[in-house]
Design a protein that fits this description.
The protein is mainly alpha-helical and 117 residues long. The protein has a domain of 72 residues: Arc Repressor Mutant, subunit A, CATH 1.10.10.10. The protein is 39% helix and 3% strand. Strands 1-2 form a two-stranded antiparallel sheet. Helix 1 crosses helix 2. The longest helix is centred in the middle third of the chain and has 17 residues.
Amino acid sequence: MTKTTTKSRKAADHPTWKEIIQECITTEPRQGVSRSFIKKYAEEQYQLSGPASVNQLKRAITSGVESGLFVMPKGPSGRIKLAPSTCTKENAKPKPVSKKKPASGSKTKKGRATTKA
């Protein structure tokens, strides 16, 4: 019989990667930030560097996009922005839906019929 021992993890000295990304985006006055800028920000603020941090950053971005926390309007190589808050969507008035008339299949000319004799 073997016992499995569980080791308790040491609490991280820094916030989660999603929180780091949010903080980086909110401190910059630009329209979104790049991955390299987030990486540099994490290295300067929290001394996070190395190949593991790159993978963790990538995973945090993809999970944040899937959960709706971040938006990547130009695809995976573009800038990362915070998603618009849900409260602004709730307060916005819905656009009125205009009903379109169905287009008629065939157009007929009105007027007299011409016959060839």
